[in-house]
Amino acid sequence: NTGLSNQKNPLSSDQLHQINKKVWQDLILNAISDNAIARYKLTVTDSELITDIENNPPQAFKSSFIDSAGVFHKADFVRALHDPKNDTVIRAILPILRTGYLRKKLSEKLLGEVTISEEEAWHQFHKEKPKATKADFQKTKEKLTEKYLEQKKRDYIYKWIEDEKAHAKIVDKRKMEGR
Description:
By secondary structure, this protein is mainly α.
């Protein structure tokens, strides 16, 4: 018994296969990310984490500081974050958040130099709409450039992951070694 089904809605073998496949892909991606973080020597200090939490509080933290009118009370949140009475809880949460922030730094490092010129955006637009004119492009240039940049970033990350997988050595279906 997998514990993933119940009498009313048992999971099919296809659903179990999809779950297994997704978990395995996530494990591989996590191993690739962790290897790259170590290779690039990326770090996040407690101070960086706290500053980022102050500026971008996770919803789980934020919800306790939103009043009945839906207003977030940031000053109260920051005070609670720095209150020594909460230090044990904060110290327990930091390692969990650190992984996410390290992966965010890795993403920023990898994507930091991915850009798209106006000319590249125009060529992409024209490839999608061969009858379009430069004037058509100019009308929505900013939105299109942003769209094509996001597409280029997705393609870059996909290629990076595939390259990393190709260089990784799977040790015994539970471990993976990086470059």
